Amino acid sequence: MEKTEILKRYFGHSEFRPGQGEVIDHIVSGQDCLGVMPTGAGKSMCYQIPALMLGGTTIVISPLISLMKDQVEGLQQSGVSAACINSSLTTEEYFRVLDGASAGEFSIIYVAPERLTSESFLRMCSRLTIPLVAIDEAHCVSHWGQDFRPSYLKITEFVSSLPKRPVLAAFTATATDIVKQDIVRILGLFQPFCVTTGFDRKNLYFEVRPTEQRHKDAVLLGIVRDLSGRSGIVYCSTRKNVEAVGAFLRLNGVEARCYHAGLPDEERRQAQEDFIYDRCSVMVATNAFGMGIDKSDVALVVHYNMPKDLESYYQEAGRAGRDGGPARCILLYSKGDVRTAEFLIDHGHEDSGLEPAEQEEIRKRDRERLRQMTFYSTTTKCLRHFILSYFGEQSPAACGHCGNCDAEMETLDITVEAQKVLSCIFRLKQRGRSGGKVLVSGILCGKTTEQIEQGGYETLSTYGIMKEYKTTYVREIIDHLEQQGYITTGEEYHTLALTPAADELVRSRRTLLMKRPKRAGAVTAETVQNSADVQEDTELMQRLKELRKKEAAILGVPAYVVFTDASLREMSVKKPRDMHAFLNISGVGTMKAERYGRQFIAVVEKYISEKG
Prior knowledge:
Structural class: alpha/beta
Shape: globular
Number of helices: 27
Strand content: 5-15%
Largest sheet: 7 strands, parallel
Strand order of the largest sheet: 3-4-2-5-6-1-7
């Protein structure tokens, strides 16, 4: 069967997304592949369709039990025989899968990397025809990736044990050049076809809200109450914050669950199921949650704390709007987030098994990533452009549809203020001293602190020359000067130092401008909804959702496994009244049309009849 026919018959789509068709063609032709495709770009199609074209049994290696379960259920709903092998199976279930696989029952088997060296699993594989091994979340193989997992190093041993080397296809959502090189080298990809698709997710609305820590709960509550029955994820950097935020939301009437690695397994499993099956609207979690969650109708991702790097942020934010519908990604930024991230970096990798020199090298890399994440959180430029530029992609300087592009800005002449800041750093250096943002802003604003008194800094000529300003505004100027390359921050003690460009700025006497929001752009759910290409009939959409919920309950699967919100939205617009029209809805394949077509068409017919 040809790839386009499989795409329509089993998955209900008429066209491939960018990069998918090329990757599929190279895999089927026998060439190894590396695909770097953002969350929501359809990586799974790149190995699921070749699996059906090549025959035999494709092995998909994934670290995520939840992803395996979601994808297997989705494949089974679409008429594809699939199974998974991971620690969630009982001994009886495990051997039932092995027996079924040996009998050739499954086209695709998902397996956790920890199971690859199991004797029973290896015996089963020795009897199978395995044309393809796909490695999902392939960045986990690299020490330089944001989520290194030692178990991924077992993959090459597993591949070597097979009677015949299969095609290898590795996929990840984000990867720097060094991570890509590691993936190819460590997994042993042979002259792979490499594709990096565009990172832009046009349906996502990015926004940063500078928020003092003590105000975050109130701001978050206002955002979450705009969900209107849809699903949202709130990410926190620590387990303590997860539990505090979850309790606060529940106290204020929000159906929220908590998820972090410190909770008992059963409690985590129950929370995850409640979220997937729409028994709660909000999941509050650390980054331990979500990497494999295939829930397609998440309309909101809020970062309560700033993540350590843009790779993690974009991957986590990208869990919104996977069905193509409009969604918001909001970061609540406070300066305390930077200190928390620094602590996590300084105390990370201690149990990684790396040599001290390697640990320090990775920490150095992580600090630079944090620096870029802080720039994103404080920039007044287009947020989408900032993200895409970070990943090496060309884009317009302004997207016209993000929190910064929509905000009303004021342009300030900070030439004199900048010179005062640079002068203070210079005077400190003359005394053989240096300081960070807190000390420099405190000196400039004439503060009386223990550090200033002990250092005798009140005798500096720059002491108190900006006392008419708040220290927060002075630090904002310091951040701007760092972004513009006039100041650098030391890696170890975060002390400020001047660059050659600072001397040039002072000597040239040219004007320095800084943009800052006059007021935050008022972004409502309606604003985001109106950005979508398809405008739904809300009443019909609700009826379709009720039918979907009923069908999902009968089958015991999440609602989005039956149909995504995007498919229901298209039904509410096009109002299909026969099977031919129903099959033309994106996401409706032959199996799903046979299984659900009559019921959903009947809902549309009844609605049209009632409305005349």
